[in-house]
Design goal:
The complex is a heterodimer of chains A (about 160) and B (about 375).
Chain A (H helix, E strand, L loop, with lengths): L34 H7 L5 E5 L4 E3 L15 E4 L3 E7 L15 E7 L4 E6 L12 E10 L2 E8 L6
Antiparallel strand pairs in A: 1-2, 1-3, 4-5, 4-7, 5-6, 7-8
Chain B lengths: L8 E7 L11 H16 L8 E4 L2 H7 L6 E2 L6 H13 L6 E7 L27 H16 L3 H16 L14 H6 L2 E3 L2 E2 L9 E8 L1 H4 L7 E10 L27 H11 L8 E3 L5 H10 L8 H4 L18 H4 L6 H15 L12 E8 L4 E9 L2
Helix pairs in contact in B: 3-12, 5-9
The chains are: A mainly beta (about 160), B alpha/beta (about 375).
């Protein structure tokens, strides 16, 4: 028999969502292109790629702008505020390293880009498409910081 | 104007045994068994094979003792491999082509989800974005936009699982019957998907034999025409956010939520057909919502109406558009790459009138699909019975 947690037939809407913790959560395979993003996470700053030629915000970062084809970009700091674009709650863990439930999500940032993250510091019953959220950084294990999102404490304007 | 695939015929389709596990098999050995199986079934001597597409092309050529053959140049799978083979035959690069797939031995650690459902990409891996979650993010957005319900998805899942329940070749044969209520009572996996909304995992092999109409005329089963088909890609699998509204950068084109629409429109145009002409829908069923999405993407119903469209028996055997009649990935089998080819194999068997269970009587046109918006791709093919 499996040692993981038993079947969840009727998930409690009051279940609190927490960030992941532990050495076994897979770390991102950082590239030369993405290194500034992950380094900034350690300083609790959320960066995104900005292309001056087109005025486009882009995420995840790519070598070229999807709109203009330009290779000239800068890293800008996001205010970390946006809306919950879509969400799910995973009850069957990817591996035993993941504590369930957790809530992978797509967040639409105010600067005009979308990113994959997960929602924390609320209950599963709180999740709703369009909910205002804000970034919160969490150290998964020593030297490994991920940007999560939580319900916004002040409504983004 | 002549049809692009007028020189092409699918002469046979063969599935090996499918099972949760096939002890002693690897993907390569079960693929080889599938290749030999289709040759035996159709009665084509092995030395006539001059092209191999899909999995293990070079390995199979060697194992079968063939001289130099043409192979897949792209590593394409499923419908994409069938279309690649068709294009090679049409271009007279070859006359007798195998399209082969095998999947076994990948999934050993049952404490984790299947390895191919765990994207390793930098931007998703750390957030535990299993494949079910990728597709759930698509379904959730559609629910928010159009009011699509878990009950409508459950009808899809129950319909497909009941097709497999009566198919003795299905891995989950005899496990039903299922009602929508049964689906809604199963445990939650990735909200809104419950266990019975999701594909299973299993092992097996599948192969098609494709040739010319002249060669096919001498073979035992009716030949099946490729009426049209194409592939749609919005990006690589499981790297970018699976957003419904992901769009092209500079032109007005369907968003990722309707990936497959361009391919379907192209296929229908090539065939000179409309969705209403399709007799059986061998659609890809990784998750229940995908069927609802495909009916909208392919033009069977209007945007946002897919949830209502699947209700009231329309997609069941005897309905207007019977779906995934072997039980699909939810019940028949879900081996890593064969499941992509098996939608085509089932369409071939339907048009040949060879299905022991769930035969759609008089079926003349089958539409088969692969992929989904959670994975930023959808491929389609239209098959026709040779009349």
């Amino acid at each position: 028999m499996s040692t993981r947690s038993g079947p969840v037939l009727s998930p409690e809407p009051s279940t609190v969502l927490k960030p992941q913790t532990g050495e076994d959560i897979p770390r991102p395979a950082v590239t030369d292109l993405s290194r500034p993003f992950w380094a900034a996470c350690h300083e609790s700053r959320l960066l995104y790629q900005y292309f001056p030629a087109s005025g486009q915000a882009q995420f995840p970062p790519s070598p070229v702008c999807r709109v203009s084809g330009s290779r000239e970009f800068e890293w800008r700091e996001s205010q970390g505020r946006g809306l919950l674009y879509s969400w799910t709650v995973v009850w069957r863990p990817q591996t035993p390293a993941y504590q369930v439930p957790y809530a992978p999500a797509i967040v639409e940032l105010a600067e005009g880009y979308r990113m994959v993250s997960a929602v924390v510091d609320c209950t599963t019953g709180d999740l709703a498409v369009g909910m205002p959220v804000e970034v919160v950084f969490h150290e998964v294990c020593e030297g490994f910081v991920l940007p999560y999102f939580r319900p916004a404490r002040e409504v983004a304007r | 104007m002549s049809h692009p695939y007028e020189r092409v015929m699918i002469a046979g389709a063969f599935n090996t045994q499918q099972a949760r596990r096939l002890p002693g098999h690897t993907s390569a050995t079960i693929a080889l068994e599938a290749a030999q199986g289709v040759l035996t079934e159709v009665g084509v001597p092995v030395d006539e094979v001059d092209a191999i597409f899909g999995d293990f092309c070079g390995e199979i050529a060697y194992q079968l003792g063939l001289p130099a053959v043409s192979i897949s140049g792209s590593g394409s799978k499923g419908i994409a491999a069938v279309l690649e083979a068709a294009q090679a035959i049409a271009a007279r690069a070859c006359d007798v082509a195998l399209v082969v797939a095998g999947g076994a031995g990948h999934y050993a650690d049952r404490e984790a989800t299947a390895p191919w459902t765990r994207p390793a990409n930098e931007w998703v891996a750390s957030f535990g974005l299993i494949t079910a979650a990728e597709f759930a993010l698509i379904a959730r957005r559609h629910m928010a936009m159009y009011g699509t319900t878990p009950e409508q998805m459950a009808v899809v899942a129950a319909t497909i699982r009941n097709n497999g329940h009566v198919n003795p070749e299905a891995v989950y044969y005899g496990r039903g019957p299922f009602t929508a209520e049964d689906v809604l009572a199963s445990r939650m996996i990735a909200d809104p998907f419950r266990l019975l909304d999701c594909a299973t995992t299993s092992e097996g092999g599948c192969a098609l034999l494709m040739t010319t109409p002249e060669r096919a005329a001498d073979l035992p089963y009716p030949g099946v025409r490729i009426l049209g088909g194409n592939t749609d890609r919005m990006g690589p699998l499981y790297q970018y956010p699976p957003a419904w509204d992901l769009t092209a950068a500079r032109v007005d084109a369907p968003p990722n939520g309707y990936v497959g629409r361009r391919a379907a429109q192209h296929a229908f145009k090539t065939a000179g057909l409309r969705p209403q002409d399709v007799d059986v829908c061998e659609f890809y069923d990784p998750f229940s919502f995908e069927i609802i999405r495909q009916f909208e993407a392919f033009g069977f119903c209007a945007e946002g109406e897919g949830g209502e469209f699947v209700m009231n028996g329309r997609i069941a055997l005897g309905g207007e558009y019977p779906i995934t009649t072997d039980g699909g990935t939810m019940s028949y089998s879900h081996a890593r790459t064969p499941q992509l080819l098996q939608r085509v194999a089932r369409g071939v068997h339907q048009l040949q009138g060879r299905c022991a269970t769930n035969q759609v009587e008089g079926a003349e046109v089958a539409m088969c699909s692969n992929g989904g918006a959670g994975a930023l791709f959808t491929d389609v093919i239209l098959l026709g019975r040779e009349l």
